[in-house]
Amino acid sequence: MPTFHGKILIVKLSALGDVIASTGLITQLKKENPECTIKHLVMSQCKIVTQNLEQVDEVIEIPLIPSGNIIVDIKNTAFLLLKLMNERFDIAIILHRSILLQVICKIAGIKRLIGYKTKASILLSEFAEFSMIGNRSVQEVVLVKKAKLISREPERLSFQIDEARINFDKLKFLPNNFIVINPGGGNPHAPAINKQWPENLWVKFINQCPLQVVMIGNGNEDQVISDKISKKAMPFINLVNKTNLHESAFILKKSSVYVGNDSAMLYLAAAIGGVRCIGLYGPTNASAFKPLGANQISIQGESFCSPCYSSMDGIKGRMYTCSDNICMKSISVEQVLQYTEKYLNE
Hints:
CATH topology of the largest domain: Rossmann fold
CATH superfamily of the largest domain: Glycogen Phosphorylase B
Number of strands: 12
Shape: globular
Order of helices and strands: EHHEEHEHEEHHEHEHEHEHEHEHHH
Structural class: alpha/beta
């Protein structure tokens, strides 16, 4: 297959875990088209994922949209349009089911648009159906394969740690062997509380854990959860809201095992490579949301209604409206400890 030499725009705006999930596609695209220029359009809060990725030539960042202020959103969209018009991209790969993004790219003069089928997919040069069945990172690869820009699948996700952004004095007290956990999940647009393993089960896990536990995470929700757990659990190293993403990645790389819900930290752990991960799933389907890469154990909560999440439904879907996440409650501490000890024994 001949390689492409032009300018490619990857449109993957957010959230943090979703952007990390797309890094496999980006690295494979550059691997098979080494002479092309790849630029990534992303929201500011997620630019940290690809700004150090060697396969990305430039990150084009935009503020959080929607911001809650329609005037600000219109202004930011206008600036984005001008930027894209000046860039003169040959191809835009739009990894969102968004008619608006398709229209913006078309107005910006990008002739070849590749994306998921929508009601207005007449603007797309090549498209594929989006489905909740099958791994979402692989679906993106299939989309770009259809456009004949790549021929093979990536082996894993990618994140490049920038040691210049790490305060090593802050991390010098880390033990030689430890387990990392993150009890949070969700994003600014959609806090997914029902994806979280219950606090009382985290407490039991920490109390029975064979190694020292280090907790990481960021945001108000993670802080609230960590505060509640710290009041009941045996002492652990609580670094919630005390590390940036590069410091969190460094901690994960040094860890013996990572345990967490279906969230950005699980994807970050998988993207570093070599980290042994245990992912906890309930409303989301592990087969669809398991990160690419080796060393992945997925525990799927069992209930009559699980998995119930569909991105087609948005925040009105069952995962967000459910009043009792029995699927996550069905995952026992014994299950998680069993797999943790299995990894440690290896």
